[in-house]
Amino acid sequence: MTIDRRTLLKYSALVPLMGVAPQLVRAASELTNETADYTLRIGTGLVELAPDHIVSTTLYNGIFPGPLLRFKEGQRAVADIYNDTDTPELVHWHGQMIPSDVDGAAEEGSPFVPPHAMRRVVFVPKPSGFRFYHTHVVAGRDLNRGTYTGQAGPVYVEPKNNPGAYDREVFLVLKEFEPTFSRGGDMAMDILAGSPVEALQAMGRAADEEAQEKAKGFEVSYDRFSINGRMLGHGEPIRVKLGERVLFHVLNASATEIRSLALPGHTFHVVALDGNSVPTPANVPVLWLGTAERVSAIVTMNHPGVWVVGDLSDEDRGHGMGIVVEYAGREGKPEWAKPKPFRWDYSRFGRPNAAPVAPDETIEMTIVKHNAALNGFNRWTLNGEAFSMESMKPRYTLQQGRRYRLKLRNASDDIHPIHLHRHSFEITRISGKPTAGVIKDVVMLGGFQAVEVDFVADNPGLTLFHCHQQLHMDFGFMALFEYA
Ligand SMILES: [Cu+2]
83 alpha carbon to ligand 1 midpoint, in Å? Predict the structure, then answer.
């Protein structure tokens, strides 16, 4: 058994960020006799990735992934969040349209759950579909904080009417463990549809020339990879029957990585992205998911055998990123076959030949990477400005009811999984072409590419916009929206 020595360092390295008296918080919760519908306990625990690989990290209810929480759309829910750690925590309800004070982001004004205390949150879950919950604290250079830990779990908000054209559901949570800092390699450029924009490449070159540091900043790499907290070959296989239709709900719970998934001999029939039904369900051989993205896809089990459903990267799959699919009556060594190259294109799932609705206002943001500008970490700016955690000043003011277009231009070679809190957006232009009908809360913006997404300002309150790559959001890549 190996227990990460970083855990031992954890408590000495951190200083509580705020000093709310725990007894005051408890007193507030004792005023009501209502019992909670859900209880989450944040605390240190062990994840047995494999019998000889047990890691210690921060978990929800002592397990990874955290428990699947099923909510009913529109039905008020009470959740008690206990923080058994020595540092303040936040639980963010990713993809839900709920008030800022319960959304779980300090930048929006949600209170922390103080160390060794409980905070009750009450909200009406919506919209229906596959969402998730995760910590939203700043990790910075501490790889024992934030989404580098095991604080992630799936949420399913049951729709009022369930269409259910499948035999059963399987939730897959993709997650890496044992992070370390490394000097970055180049991001793969052949994942997403579309080609780089020359003007953005020129801006990227100019930023590189201006940078005092010529080398790129720190990236994070991982030793262990898992699906549902088990390395490939060490968990229970997904046991299926010939002809069965399995609805996979896949969540990329990585702090920093883009993931792929393929099942040899089978295709994924994508029915929803980020929990929202797509206008044109379509078959694809490979799923690509940026950090925090979800894909719901039906696989018809029509190719008997014992298979690996896993990441395309031999290295990541070799270190655990996969799970076995076993047909009834079949046995033997799980087989893997690399699929043909395939580029992920969100517009494939959009309304064909549909033009997006014109926005009331367009907000343009150009993203620049400043190599190793912050003591070896890359600094990220939006239109020349990095988000300040000190001032937390809102950057844009929204008028309720207006439709906004975010025109996002990436002058860096990284893929950015860009997330908007408390709202959903519609992808309106991607890889150079207009599209409509794909509703998401995270979109991958390719290296030196541009993407346009529209959202309606329909949920008043402070709203955070950020790259979901922990290392990017912690070092400048955030902006706060306020309502007028
Ligand atoms: Cu990013």
Answer: 29
Q: Is the pLDDT of residue 5 over 70?
A: no
* Bridge partners for 306 per DSSP: 326
Give residues with Cβ within 8 angstroms of 107, minimum separation 6: 389, 392, 462, 464, 478, 480
- Per DSSP bridges, beta strands 478-483 and 396-398 are parallel
Most distant pair of Cα atoms in the chain: their distance: 62
Cα separation, 226 vs 253, whole angstroms: 10
Position 7 confidence tier, pLDDT thresholds 50, 70, 90: very low
List, in sequence order, every residue forming a beta bridge with 227; answer none if it has no partner. Answer: 174, 230
User: Is the pLDDT confidence value at 223 over 50?
Assistant: yes
CA 185 to ligand 1 center in whole angstroms: 15
Compute the distance from residue 476 Cα to the ligand 1 centre, in Å.
Answer: 10
CA atoms of 258 and 254, how far apart (whole Å): 8
How remote is the CA of residue 335 from the centroid of ligand 1, in Å? 34
Alpha-carbon distance values, 52 to 2, 154, 378 (Å) = 7, 26, 35
How far, in Å, is the centroid of ligand 1 from the Cα of 187?
12
Report the separation in Å between the CA atom of 467 and the middle of ligand 1, taken as the mean of its atom positions. Answer: 5
Neighbours of ion ligand 1 (CB under 5 A): 416, 467, 469, 472
Query: 37 C-alpha vs ligand 1 centroid, how far in Å?
Result: 35
- What's residue 14's pLDDT? 35
pLDDT at position 3: 39
3-state secondary structure of 286: coil
483 CA to middle of ligand 1, Å? Answer: 25
Return all residues near 301 (Cβ < 8 A) that are at least 6 apart: 240, 241, 242, 243, 244, 245, 246, 266, 325, 327
CA of residue 147 to ligand 1 center, whole Å: 14
CA of 372 relative to ligand 1 center, distance in Å: 15
Q: For residue 86, report the distance from its CA to the centre of ligand 1, in Å.
A: 29
Strands 425-430 vs 91-94: parallel, antiparallel or unpaired: unpaired
The Cα–Cα gap between 418 and 477 comes to: 9
How far apart CA 11 and CA 85 sit, in angstroms, is: 9
Q: How far is the CA of 53 from the centre of ligand 1 (A)?
A: 30
> Which carries the bigger pLDDT value, residue 215 or residue 155?
155
Distance 295 CA to ligand 1 centre (A): 20
Give every strand in the sheet of 38-50, ordered side by side: 53-60, 38-50, 77-83, 117-123
Residue 119, token pair as written in the block: 């905070």
User: Per-residue pLDDT for 481 more than 70?
Assistant: yes
